[in-house]
Amino acid sequence: MNEENGYRIPLVKPQRVDAVRELEVSGPWLTKSDAALDVSLSMPLDELRDEFMACDPDELAHVGTDIRGLRIYDVRGIEPGKVGGTEFHRVRQELAFCKRGAVEWVCQDVYGQIRTFVLTQANAVRVPPFIKHTYKALETSDLQVVANTLYNADNPRTHDTFSAADFDILKKSFNGASPAGK
Question: Helices in the chain by DSSP H: which ranges?
């Protein structure tokens, strides 16, 4: 977890959990090779460019290095009942897919609202910055995550991962507030 200013109040008010978008996976369709083709993600260019790949310049400035990019990673073999996530990001947006099994995915915003999803192979979620997310495996599961930031294991500033404790401190700053945009 990044210890650097996780609870620093952002200049741009964070979005509500209503901004977490559930995505449908389409397919399978039979290919010419008699294999199954599944479409995990289909996103219009404007949404991809203007929303998913967008990063708050002030938050990027605090990182100290340009972490914008595209990264795909897998979390495999999550046993039933195991909990992960319990974090939030200040810059990073994520698209989370359940490639095997099922997970309960809970999102909370700094205003106290909560949304819960059950991720399977039929859906995914897009999680914007400043949304704490926690998952719990309902059965043995594998997740795949697409992130709009890069990661250098040797440079903690690039991790853009902050604890639930930092989130709780930050949330106190927004108690009773409503997101008014920039």
Answer: 45-47, 57-63, 164-173
Distances (CA, A) of 90 to 43, 78, 79, 156: 22, 25, 28, 14
Neighbours of 144 (CB within 10 A): 17
Domain of residue 149, CATH code: 2.60.120.10
Beta bridge partners of 88: 162
State how far the alpha carbon of 131 is from the alpha carbons of 64, 79, 173, in Å: 22, 24, 15
* C-alpha–C-alpha distance, residues 35 and 80, integer Å: 29
Predicted model pTM: 0.88
Task: Name the residue range of residue 91's domain.
Answer: 17-173
Residue 10 lies in a domain: no
Q: What is the pLDDT of residues 49-83, one digit of tens each?
A: 999 999 999 999 999 899 999 999 999 999 999 99
C-alpha 147/C-alpha 35 separation (Å) is 28
- Residue 181 has φ and ψ, to the nearest 5°, of 85, -150
Structure tokens at 56: 């708050």
5 located within any domain? no
Nearest to 101 by CA among 126, 82, 127: 82
Q: Strands, DSSP E only, in 31-113? A: 36-39, 68-78, 83-88, 94-100, 103-108
